[in-house]
Amino acid sequence: MRRRVQRRAWWIPVIVFGCSGAVSKTAPSAHASPAPETPPRVARAEPAEPVVAAEPPEAPPETPPQSPPAVSEVAMMEAVGPPLPTFPAREAPYKLLILGDSMAATDFGRALEKRLDKRAEIEVARRGKSATGLARPDYFDWMAEGSKRVTQHDPDLVVVIIGGNDGQDLIPKSKDARPRRVIWNSDDWEAAYAARVTDFCLELLADHRRILWLELPVMEHRSLERKLRTIRRVQVEALNALIPRVTYVPTRAHFVGEDGKVLTRVKVPGYRATQVLRQEDGIHFTVPGSQYFAARVAPDVLAALGLGGSNP
To answer: Deepest in the core among 41, 61, 72, 135, taking most CB within 10 A?
Structure first.
């Protein structure tokens, strides 16, 4: 395990994802909405060079909310490699651990866990903590928590969705650490945050273990989405160096229509009419919205484990 870089920043995020607690288990169970913005799939034998698209200019205030990505979906897929499963077939159930902020702690995490629990070949555990991320280990230390949970559950695959609360100064865990903090949007922030993403992954990985990292969903909330563009890009760049042990799963296509606008209503299995995707804040998912998102990413989890068949 390599030594982590020091981390910094001192204030709690203005945008907070949810307020629910954490959920965890050690065997299949049935039983989380989100935090704002295969081993997992295995990359090609010779992974492609990172491809990052330039961030497009923001739409003028008078236009409807738009979400041009800082990194295109195609570029992200080229950066992290194709979705190829690498886990060998076996009789014992695969162990899966879901980790993250309120996206994992509330309705989306709960919906994904419930959906995957329908597969007899998978044992699911989940740990989420709302209003957290990698920026404030003085508030909640995901490095220590992640290490604790993989030791407890020994998963084959860890599904991570985190970062929506990280558009702020970086603060180290120790009050005596220097520098005390790294200012958001400063010249040093991106390198310091990339190091935290890398260190977090190294806490979770093992010889037999892989990570499936879910892209933070596109948000209706304009100011948050501006921050998430930077966070997504830095995460991709950091995770690209960990291929094939980590696979990044783009999710933008699930939340943006063909016209480039953020979706507000979606078709959800089990509902006759289209359903509102998000709550009034434009950030957190409704229960149907969480079920919609879970149904879209469950196949990626199954593919990461090398499991075929229909979407559970």
So the answer is: 135
